[in-house]
Fold:
Amino acid sequence: MTALTYNPVRILGLAGLGLVGLGIVVALLSLATNLAPARDDGRFAYLFAALVLASAGVNVFSIGATFNYIVSLFHQRRIRQGLLGRPIFRTPLEAHFGWMGVTAILAGILVYGVAVWQHWTDPTTRAPWFARP
Structure:
């Protein structure tokens, strides 16, 4: 009975969404506030922390979705309990991976464009503390 009701994506998915949300909050606070960091590369450290949090959140969510799929293999039927007690999408999540991937690629291109526009990639700027020889 435990295996039938076990829903890994509910536990790991909520943790993953929480990490992604925390990463977004850290990034927005870093970009929106004009707080003078203690170091020249302080803002970069906040953005790096946001990137790590968001990446960890996506990985934890993916692990939950994968474990849900493995549980469904053991029962030889699709288990669609969903993240919050009911399925979010009418079709399974893996049917949406195409547009999610394209959206992620476009978001990456947008972030790179902003980085170039703000001169974050300028070779004449001072390297962050962890990249200095």
Q: What stands out?
A: The first helix runs from residue 2 to 5.
